[in-house]
Each structure stands twice: as C-alpha cells, then as structure tokens.
Task: structure prediction
Amino acid sequence: MKKALRIYGWTWVIVMASSLIAAIAFVIHTSHHDLARDPNNLTKIVKVDLPAIAESKSENNLSRGAS
Result:
C-alpha cells in the first residue's frame, strides 16, 4: 500500500512539475505571430528587403444609418 501511494504521489509531482515548466515556457517564448505584427521584425524574420508599408484607414459603409 505504501509503495502504491508513493508511486501515485511521485506521479502527481511529475505531472505538476511538467505542467509548470510548460506554462513557463509558453509565457516566456514569443510566438512568430507576435513577432510578425511589427513590420520591422517581419523583415528580420524573412531576411528579405520589403517595400515600404503605407498605413491607411478604411471604413465600410454597412451601417446605413450614417448615410
């Protein structure tokens, strides 16, 4: 009985430790989606000179109450 409880306890310790390590790695490691949001980082990622990006605002006129 003591051996079974010891195995069960160590199993929980290993599961919790690996979950904690995975959660920390997920928080620390930045994904490529976050890096690609910035155009300056995008040129570093693809290692190709890209043309200048012009920002523009547009609105759709689906709200017919304004027209």
Remarks:
- The chain has three helices and no strands.
- The mean pLDDT is 80.
- The first helix runs from residue 2 to 28.
- The radius of gyration is 25 Å.
